[in-house]
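For the sake of transparency, this paper describes our internal protein records without simplification. The remainder of this section carries one protein's record, kept here as part of the documentation:
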Amino acid sequence: MKAHTVTGDGGTKLHVQETGKPSGKPILFIHGFSQCSLAWSKQLDSDLAASFRLLALDLRGHGLSDKPRDAYGDSSIWANDIHGVIEQLELSKPLLVGWSYGGPIISDYVARYGEDAIAGSSWVAAVCRLGEALMPFLGPQFLAAAPGFFSADVEESVSALRTLIRLCIPGGLSTAEEALMLGFNVAVPPHVRAGLLSRNLNNDSVVADMKKPMLITWAEKDAVALPTMRDHLARLAPHAKVSPYAGARHAPFWEAPERFNGELRALREAA
């Protein structure tokens, strides 16, 4: 495993983990709200590494990346961060894999830079809207926990983040895995989570204009981003392949990694 530091928008330092085959086709993993690159451990430490160049970014405000204030609200910031990773690490047409909040980031990038520099995209329980436009697509348990994401009270914040983890992966986490996930969630300051969820965004038209290969992966029982968002994305991008998971929740790449990795391999080989 190699570690890189990339300069993002406004000079923000971004941490990127890399593993796999240096000459392989690149896959860039973009994690979700309040998470970090460690969420992709079942992809980075898998047989995908024998074939592909695998990179996982800590978004600004997350993991080992810088955590500035007031640097989360503008779509160009996120687009420039992804562009910086692609350019500075010399990624030749990477496949962008976005989980949950990774959807707005992929579409922010495409809105500003187009699709010429990427091979395609994988949308993993990923949304294309934020703010009021997203509300109908969010589950009630997630919405009930949301105020705690912004709290400076440690007990309230930890309780809300534990709820988020259990909504993403309701079963199958060992005590150590849950502690790790809680740790990297807690490491995200409340001002970052507030900045992310204060955005109002509707990138429907961006998704509708995307032409490169696209995979939409969704669990039927997702209680964070409802399957109605999957259906919405499929209508916007009729060329996309939709892969429904019957038993998983908001993190199918963690709950069913063998299937997820196989589908990702097929997409990357074809793109």
